Structures are given as structure tokens and as C-alpha cells.
Amino acid sequence: MQRVFSGIQPSGIPTLGNYLGAIRNWVKIQDNHDCLWCVVDLHAITVWQDPAVLRQQSLEMAAVLLACGVDPAKHILFLQSAVRAHAQLAWIFNCVARLGWLNRMTQFKDKAGKDRENVSSGLYVYPNLMAADIHAYHATRVPVGDDQRQHLELANDIAQKFNHDYGVDFFPNIEPVILGAGARVMSLRDGTKKMSKSDPSDQSRINLNDNADTIALKIRRAKTDPLPLPFDVQELAERPEARNLVGIYAALTDSDHASVLKEHGGQGFGPFKNALTMLLIEKLAPIASETQRLLSDQEALINLLRVGAERAAVIADPIVKEAERLVGFVGLRGD
Ligand code: TYM
Q: What is each CA distance from 186 to 46, 54, 56, 196, 271, in whole angstroms?
């Protein structure tokens, strides 16, 4: 069976984008794969995190994943910092990846913005750690949203260079799994920008813990245009906000843009937004209440994550040890 790995940063409440682009697909892929689901706290500190908030958000993220249907008995759910193999392999990959490759990463350019000289060096080598996350388990399938595509290409470049430099066939090629209408959920305020936990405007996103009133208000205020919904998908091309709302509807109903327009084409945004609000509340309310229930017993949650980390380390440690042997370390560490 192919091994699956994916991760999510505990840098805020997960958004509808995280849910539709990633988490929902994680739950689906669990049926016929061995999966590792990781809350990537090492990645989170590439930008400043208040320590107490990071601790709380890491547990909250784990609770949200469980509430969405991640199965910690059949699969493995853990915190990245609890398995040292990630940092160990990332260092080797820092020495394999080329500066020129990192310079091409659009996410770094977006995140660093104009303040490039002042961001952490961790933010720059972030994709190397991400490659290590996956390759430490010899995982071959990675379910993500569309924004991670370039990082996964880099992970393959790193694997190929490692294999070539050391004359081995050790790290396998990985295949991104980027599915359906939810692969790129955009901001509710600007249909050309990604919906993101870090957007300064809370109105730009639906958070997975928003209550029904908040969801209704955010959808009512979501930017649209004056035209009714078209009948033809082509006509969404120049209408990013309309395209986004139709895409969200499609993802939530497991359909596609064309089927949604078949049902709602010709409608004004008023009735369509009402239908979308109902759908969102129906899907998200159970997640929010289950998350709260899980967080009310933090000890159980921590125990579950501890077991997850132990099981993850059993897979990753021998792989990273072999990578260390291949690069020429004498290997006196006793693990
Ligand atoms: P992160 O925490 O930004 O996002 C987690 C997942 O959610 C997806 N996503 C979206 N999908 C659709 N529309 C959106 N607006 C949207 N926003 C976020 C992301 O594509 C991602 O799948 N670098 C990663 C975490 C990571 C990782 C890994 C992923 C670390 N190591 C190894 C896969 C494999 C990140 O920052 O995701």
C-alpha cells in the first residue's frame, strides 16, 4: 500500500480553504492508504509565534483534524516537533537543495514581501523541511491544496539530487494529490487572493470554528458582482468572486462548477448566498462542536499525540539513519 503524508501549520484556526483543499481529502484518502497526518509546528515558527499561543493552537489543530474525521487508530496523527527525524533529515536536505531552487519559490516571495532581508532563514529553507517531512517516511502520495504544488516539485528535485549524488535509489518520487473544486479557495473579499489564516481581515475567510451567525454574516458580506450567476462555466472566468462562491458550493456538495450552475444559473446572489450559507452551517457546525468536546479533555488529546509520535518515529528513524549512513556519517548515535 502506498504511504501518504500531509501536514498543516498550527498558525491559526484552520479555514474553509484548509478544509476543502486538504483536510477533507485527507479523510477520504484514509480508506485505502496508510496515512501520516502531521501538525507542523516546526514550520509554524518560521514566522513569529507567541509560545503560549503556539502550544494552544497545536492542540486545537489536532482536535480539529480529529473532529473532521482523521482516524488516529488506523492512521498516525502527531506533532512534527515530537519526531526528531524531521529536523535531522531537513539538515541534510539543506545541504542538497540549491539556492537557485529556493529562490524560485513563489510562496517565499509572497510571505517575505518587501521585507526580505528581515525574515528568518527558516522561512527561506522551509521547503527543505517540507521535503524532509515526506521523505522521512518514504511517503509517495501527498494530498494538498494547489498552493503547495511548487513545494512538492522541489521535494522531488531534492530526492533526485540526493539519489544521484550518492548513487542510490533511496528516496522515491512523490505524487501530489490535488483534488476537485476546493483545491484553491479564494478570499471572500478578493477573489484573486488565496483564503488564508494569516489574512489580516477575518471577513476574508470562514474559520472552522465560526458559528452559524458569523458564517451567515461573512457570506452575506462576501464580495460579488452585479450580474446573476451564469449558465455557462466559461463565463465565470472573468468573475473571480462568483467563481469562488460557486467553487465552494461545488466542493461542499462533491460536485463541480458546471453542475452547480445547472442548478443555480440565472439566480441572483441573494438566494445563492442563502443556499451556500445553509450548506456551510450544515457541514461546519458538527466540526466546531466536536472540536470543543475533544479540547475539553486535553490529557486524552496529548496522550493520543504522544502515541502518534512514537509510531511515526518507528517508521522515520531507520529511514533517516540510512540517509545519514549514505552521506558518510559514522553513525555513533545510539537510536
Ligand atoms: P498550510 O498550513 O498553509 O495549509 C494546510 C493545507 O491546506 C491547503 N490550503 C488550501 N487549499 C485550498 N484553498 C486554500 N485557500 C488553502 N489554504 C491552504 C494547503 O494547500 C495545505 O494542503 N507547507 C504546508 C504544510 C506542510 C506540508 C508538509 C504539507 C508542511 N510539511 C508536507 C504536505 C506535506 C502549509 O503551510 O500548509
A: 24, 25, 27, 8, 21
Residue 18 alpha carbon to ligand 1 centre in Å: 7
- pLDDT of 315 above 80: yes
The pLDDT value recorded for residue 302 is: 98
Say how many domains are in the chain: 2
284: CA distance to ligand 1 center in Å? 19
How far does residue 333's CA lie from ligand 1's centre (Å)? 33
Active site residues: 111, 194, 197
Q: DSSP class of residue 23?
A: I
User: What CATH number does residue 287 fall under?
Assistant: 1.10.240.10
* Mutation to probe ligand 1, out of 18, 45, 206 (largest number of atoms < 8 A from CB): 18
What is the helix, strand, coil percentage profile of the chain, to 5? Answer: 60, 10, 35
- The verdict on 79 and 161 lying in the same domain is yes
Quote the mean pLDDT of the chain: 96
- Same structural domain for residues 93 and 233? no
Residues of the domain holding 11: 3-183+297-327
Whose CA is closest to atom 9 on ligand 1?
Answer: 18
Residues 233 and 281 reside in one and the same domain:
yes
Read off the C-alpha cell for 34.
496508510
User: Has residue 335 got a pLDDT over 80?
Assistant: no
Q: Is the pTM of this model over 0.85?
A: yes
My answer on whether 28 and 65 are in the same domain is yes
C-alpha cell at 247: 467553487
Residues 155-166 have a mean pLDDT of 98
Q: What is the CATH number of the domain that holds 7?
A: 3.40.50.620
Most informative mutation of 3, 108, 148 for ligand 1 (most atoms within 8 A of CB): 148
